[in-house]
Design a protein that fits this description.
2 domains; five-stranded parallel β-sheet; globular; 205 residues; 10 strands; five-stranded antiparallel β-sheet; 6 helices; alpha/beta; Rossmann fold
């Protein structure tokens, strides 16, 4: 059975939903749609994004991996470097070569370009639902006052990335590949983290 990848986060009271969008080539059609439902700040470089992350703690960071000034993977590491930062990360890219590195850096989900605005909206909704569920579970654990649960609460599984034990890498032959995005309704994108091979194969739901 597929096993969700654990992503360490600090979970506390639910904040107003805010999104930091880092993509110099973001289409105008994305932002108006998102701003109807969320507080969205859009920047174009890693430096601007780091300043924004320090100024406020967004609920979700959406970043293109290839930035003309800086790097989206560095932003992912920055947002996941401290337990005090509960920001979820959605990486968007058209380069399959960078996906394994993004997964290793701790991004919660990957969306392959090109994608329709409704797919972006759906992925954001999924990440927010998973985050809300994790927050609820943390609150339940705290009320239970169980030392074991509280000590391990930072390991709640909040990612959309899924380890598939039966997915074998066509390059190195290892199993436990990570499915990270839907290529179609029948096929998935998979990544082998040890050798960093990325490929499409039938779904293993």
């Amino acid at each position: 059975m597929p096993t969700p990848m654990p992503v360490p986060v600090r979970l506390e009271a639910v904040d107003p939903i805010s999104i930091l969008f880092v993509d110099p080539g973001v289409e105008d059609s994305y932002l108006p749609m998102l701003r109807r439902r969320y507080e969205v700040t859009a920047v174009a470089s890693e430096e601007q994004a780091v300043r924004a992350l320090k100024a406020f703690q967004p609920t979700l960071l959406i970043t293109e991996l290839a930035l003309p000034e800086g790097d989206g993977i560095s932003l992912c590491r920055h947002s996941k470097s401290s337990e005090a930062n509960a920001t979820s990360v959605l990486a968007i890219t058209s380069s399959t070569e960078r996906v394994p590195e993004a997964l290793k850096a701790g991004c919660d989900a990957v969306l392959m370009k090109p994608f329709a605005p409704n797919l972006l909206h759906a992925r954001i909704g999924l990440l927010l639902r998973l985050r809300a569920k994790a927050l609820q579970e943390r609150a339940m654990w705290q009320r239970a006052k169980s030392a074991y649960l509280i000590d391990h609460s930072h390991r709640i599984m909040t990612g959309t990335n899924v380890v598939c034990h039966e997915a074998v890498c066509p390059s190195c032959g290892q199993g436990d590949a990570v499915s990270f995005d839907a290529a179609s309704h029948r096929r998935m994108w998979y990544a082998c983290l040890p050798c960093e091979k990325v490929w499409m194969a039938p779904r293993r739901d």
